[in-house]
Design goal:
Layout lengths: L10 E5 L5 E5 L5 E5 L8 E9 L1 H13 L28 E5 L4 E4 L5 E11 L7 E2 L2 E2 L31
Antiparallel strand pairs: 1-4, 2-3, 4-7, 5-7, 6-7, 8-9
Length: about 170
């Protein structure tokens, strides 16, 4: 599993989301709430990188491509929360991140670009990943292997590609 590029954003906008819940209204008008879990969902993080070089643009674009857009999950680098003593979402927690859409690259001044990235959390079970030195360890690898079919177990696959109808 990869980490987001080690770039310090110019602007961060974090939205804490909430816990899964549903409200039911009885015939008398009384409202009862049901909580569906104890972990936050729909946490979002908007990042803006201003006046960046073409190398930074390429780094973020390559990371987005390597995650297959919004398919693969990843962890944030420590630089994203630069300036926080305690980040709102710890680097090693029961949340990973994914893109909500493609990064936006805007021309800035001469040979500089402004980059906007939207991310959201993905709740994961700690038992699914093995943590070591800030990233998932290489062994033993247990990163959401869906249906590897005839894929070899070594090296282990992350998000194995499903091929329907393959023999």
């Amino acid at each position: 599993m990869s980490a987001f590029p080690s770039l310090v954003p110019s602007v961060r906008t974090y939205t804490p989301g909430g816990v899964p819940r549903s409200l039911q209204t009885s015939l008398t008008g009384e409202v009862t709430g049901f909580r569906g879990g104890n972990r936050r969902i729909q946490q979002t993080l908007s990042l803006s990188f201003e006046q960046r070089t073409e190398a930074d643009v390429t780094t973020i674009r390559n990371h987005y491509d390597n995650q297959y857009g919004s398919f693969d999950i990843f962890f944030l680098s420590a630089e994203i929360w630069s300036g926080y003593t305690t980040p709102p979402v710890p680097l090693l927690s029961d949340y990973a991140w994914r893109y909500t859409g493609a990064p936006v690259f805007k021309d800035g001044t001469f040979e500089r670009w402004n980059i906007e990235v939207e991310l959201e959390t993905v709740p994961i079970d700690i038992g699914d990943l093995v943590f070591s030195a800030g990233l998932a360890a290489a062994a033993p690898a247990r990163e959401y292997i869906l249906d590897a079919g005839a894929a070899s177990a070594s090296p282990a696959r992350t998000y194995a590609i499903l091929s329907p109808g393959a023999t």
